[in-house]
Structure formats: structure tokens, C-alpha cells
Amino acid sequence: MYDPLVSAHPGHGEPHTSSYWAASAGIQPEDDGPVRGATEVEVAIIGSGYTGLTTAYFLAREHGIKAVVLEANQIAWGCSGRNGGFARASGGHLWPSELIAHYGKSMARAYFEETRDALKTLKRLIAEGGIDCDAQPDGVIKTAHLPSRMAGLETEAQLFNDEFDFPVETLSPQALSHYHKGNEVYGGIRLPEGFGMHPLKLAWGYLRMARAAGARVHPASPVVGWERKGGRHLLQTPGGVVSARKVVIATNGYTSPELHSALRGRYMPVYSQIIVTRPLTAAEAAESLPSSDSMIDTRNLLHYYRRLPDNRIMFGGPGAISGKDATHPRHKLSLLHALVNKFPALEQVTLEHEWGGWVCMSRDGIPHVYEVPDSPSVYCASGYSGSGVSYTTVAGRRLAAMAAGNPDTPPTPLTQTPPPRFPFATFLRLGQHLAYQLYRYQDARN
Ligand SMILES: Cc1cc2nc3c(=O)[nH]c(=O)nc-3n(C[C@H](O)[C@H](O)[C@H](O)COP(=O)(O)OP(=O)(O)OC[C@H]3O[C@@H](n4cnc5c(N)ncnc54)[C@H](O)[C@@H]3O)c2cc1C
User: Where do the coiled-coil regions begin and end (predicted)?
Assistant: First the structure.
């Protein structure tokens, strides 16, 4: 298992992880095959997830630059091919009260508007590209998993309404039961914008759009060496050297320590685990998730779940701490236990898929789109902290403008700086282990 804090690079031509998405996505649109021989380009993009592919698309469409995308494995092999497929107005994991406390009302509001713009851009790209990604109707619910968590949710709903002009509804336990049956139903809040979709189909749609606009997208082309010579970047791949005037790093949580020294300690890959059940019967669906809204709960180690178009339940949550331990069955069993605990009606349900991936956390909980320190002509976006499905559209558009030499002016300066480093980066995993113990204790206390 690739572990971004330990392994030298993510592999070479690895197939997609076995998942419900890989099993149901159909056939990948054509790509450009691995790099063969030496190539010269204006912009090379490392990584073919949403960030890399939208950057390539916007570079071609808005700046007339036909970039080359280099992917170590199959297209969208990282987070973009394996996430939960929740798209919402968010760029990180901070809620209104935290945004306002950290940045003040006007900055928090401008940042939230940018995340709404990201969601709108995502919808526009899906429409423009005719991407058939099984998008479900809008609606995101955060549920109070304990009675004591409802007061905090009411505060967030009020801030959404009063400070962000965003009509969030507070749901009593009775109102929640129209969307969510079972246990842990002490009320919730419902966001009117945000939807679930098939993440790999979305990535493949972007692949088609980027190539149709003129970009070349090369799978099985890991960047395994990087030299600077005569104002150019020489990126070494197994099939040949790509010489570029500018480089975009779009490797996010799958960035290895070897890729660029200035990125070390600026991101924290956290493993998230997903399980998918067999299709539910109509009675089981009615007794668990009667609606297709996207659900998240109030745990620190949160559960995210929704009913898929074919009536399966996708249920995600915390997984292993290290790559070595990631495939241990106890992680999927612990999620199954949590699922049945929420929905006793699913006691007999069986699992058909399980997988996981590295979510990229930033220290301050918001994403960053920036020029890499001491590396002019190298740009990077990372740290979506579990909310990259929509925010990568804004990041891709901004990275394209930076690499084209026409940087735009984002609505806030918050996300333009390099991500702050984690203190004691060598002890990240130990810190995570201790934090998980504390979170489990807090999550169980009313
Ligand atoms: C289990 C899970 C669930 C998630 N659920 C959600 C969700 O529901 N909603 C949401 O908004 N977000 C979610 N996320 C996060 C979201 O998927 C990411 O924020 C988003 O996909 C990031 O896209 P990206 O293009 O920046 O990075 P990625 O999609 O991770 O792409 C990075 C790519 O870089 C490649 N790469 C790395 N090193 C090299 C190299 N040296 N040479 C060439 N290529 C290289 C990797 O192979 C990888 O394909 C989830 C993530 C996980 C893991």
C-alpha cells in the first residue's frame, strides 16, 4: 500500500484500487498513453486527479496553452477516483463558527462565497462536458449523533443564515426522520446546495474535456526525478524526460516526500475508509435512508454516508493510521458496526465493496493554491481536507491563470499563501494516533 509519508513515489502504471466506483464506471475514455521519448512543453502538470485535469482544461480553454499531464498510475488513481462523491459548498473542514472565529466575518463570508462559486463551477463543468456522473438531487444533512451536539448545529445554521445569507434549515428529530431513520437521530441541519455523484465518472469526464481542449494526458508516467537547467524544469519519467517552462504540482495527499522539498510538512495524509453494501430492498431503504441526501454526522472522526442511485449504502469514516495497516479487516468491520449501529434495520446487510484513500489535511483546515516557496514557475494546490470535489474547480482555474502568467485576484488572500507547516512533522503519525484517542473519547460523550 502506497504511504505518502514513507514511499518514494506512488507506483508506475498501477491499476485503480478495487472499489465500487472502479467496478461501475464503465470504460475509461481514451488517454495519450505513457510518455515516450523527450518532450518540450510550456506547462507540465504532475497528477491527473481533479486538480490536474481541471488545470489542463482551463489552461487550454482560457489561456490557449496545451499542457501535458503526467500521472504515475491510471488516470485519477488517487483521491479523485476513490472519494465519497459528496460535492458541497466547502473548501476544507471548517464550519461557519470556526471560519468567523479565525478570520472575522467579512473574510469568512468572502471565503464561503468562493466555495459556493466552486460548487456552481462544478455543476457548470458537468453540464458543459455532458458528464454523466449519476448526480443526485441537492441536499446535505449534518446530523447530531448525540443530543448534546444539536445546540452547536443550531448555531451553525444561524450563522449560515445571518452572516452568509445561506438558507440552512434546522431539522427537529421528527423532521429529520423524513430523510434519515434509525439511531443517532437527535436532529440536524440541512444545506440546500450540495449533491452526491460518481467520482470516477466525473474524473473521466474531465479527462475527455481536457483532451478535447488540446491537453495531453499520460498515465503510467511517474515523475521520478526533477532537475532545473537553463530556466527549464526537466521532469524525468520512465518513458522520457519532459522539459517544461512551468510546472503545476497536483499530487495533493498522494505527494511523496521526494517530489519537492518545499512541500514537506505542509500536508498531512489521513487514511479514510469506505464500505458499500449490496443493494437494499425497498423496505430496508425506507427504514434507513429514505432520501438520497448526502449525510455527515457530528463526530470529530466523522461518518459520511448516502444512498446510491442503485440503492446501496456507501458509508465512510476513519481508517488506519499508516499504509502498512490500511488493509487490515478490522477497519471495514468497525465501519460495518457503525453502520448497523445507526441503522438496526440493516443488521443482515452484506458488504460488496471496501477501499480507502489518503485525504489531504492542511494544518489550518483550508485549501491553498500558491507559488511554491523559492521555486518561481512552480505552482501547487493542496489541503482540501476532505472537500476537494468542488473546490478543485476553483483551484484548477486559479492554477491555470498562475501558470499562464495572468494570475487572477481571488476573493480572499486566505488560500493564496503556502500552507503552514505542521509542527514536529516527523511525529505526525504519533500526533494523529493521540488525537484519534481523544476524538474517540469526545465522540462517545454526550
Ligand atoms: C476515501 C476518500 C473520501 C473522500 N470523500 C470526499 C468527498 O466525499 N467529497 C469531497 O469533496 N472530497 C472527498 N475526498 C477528497 C477528494 O477526493 C480530494 O480532495 C480530491 O480528489 C483531490 O484531487 P487532486 O486532483 O488534488 O488529488 P488526487 O486525486 O489525489 O490526484 C493526485 C494524483 O497525483 C498522482 N501522483 C502523485 N505523485 C506523482 C508523481 N511523482 N508523478 C506522477 N503522478 C503522481 C497520484 O497518482 C494521483 O493520481 C475524499 C478522499 C478520500 C481518500
Answer: none
* Whole-number pLDDT of residue 91: 86
pLDDT above 80: residue 397: yes
In order of their start, the domains of the chain are 20-83+200-264+363-433 (3.50.50.60)
Least Cα distance to 13 among 29, 39, 33, 27 occurs for 33
Confidence of residue 363 (pLDDT cuts 50, 70, 90): very high
Backbone angles phi, psi at 399, to 5 degrees: -60, -40
The string over 157-179, giving b where at least 16 C-beta atoms fall within 10 Å of a residue's C-beta and e elsewhere, is bebbeebbebebebbeeeebeeb
pLDDT of residue 197: 98
Beta bridge partner(s), residue 378 = 247
Question: So what's the pLDDT on residue 60?
Answer: 98
CA of 429 to the centre of ligand 1 (A): 20
Grid coordinates of 136: 443526485
62 and 213 Cβ atoms separated by less than 8 Å: no
- The neighbour count for residue 345, using CB atoms within 10 Å, is 18
Reading the block at residue 212, the C-alpha cell is: 478535447
For 273-325, the pLDDT digits (tens) are 999 999 999 999 999 999 999 999 999 999 999 999 999 999 999 999 999 99
The residue to mutate among 12, 79, 217, 384, having the most atoms of ligand 1 within 8 angstroms of its beta carbon, is 79
| CA-proximal residue: ligand 1, atom 4 (nearest) | 83
Q: Tens digit of pLDDT for each residue in 71-120? A: 999 999 999 999 999 999 998 899 999 999 999 999 999 999 999 999 99
Residues 6+ apart with CB under 8 A from 364: 92, 102, 419, 420
The number of CA neighbours under 13 Å toward the Cβ of 213 is 26
Asked whether 48 lines ligand 1 (CB < 6 A), one says yes
Atom of ligand 1 minimally distant from the CA of 47: 34
- Whole-angstrom distance, CA of residue 319 vs CA of residue 331: 6
| Residue in the structure block whose three cell numbers are 502498512 | 324
- The span from the CA of 69 to the CA of 56, in Å, is 7
Name which residue sits closest to atom 10 of ligand 1, judged by CA.
387
Query: What mean pLDDT value characterizes the chain?
Result: 96
Packed helices 96-103 and 105-128: angle between N→C axes, nearest 10 degrees: 130
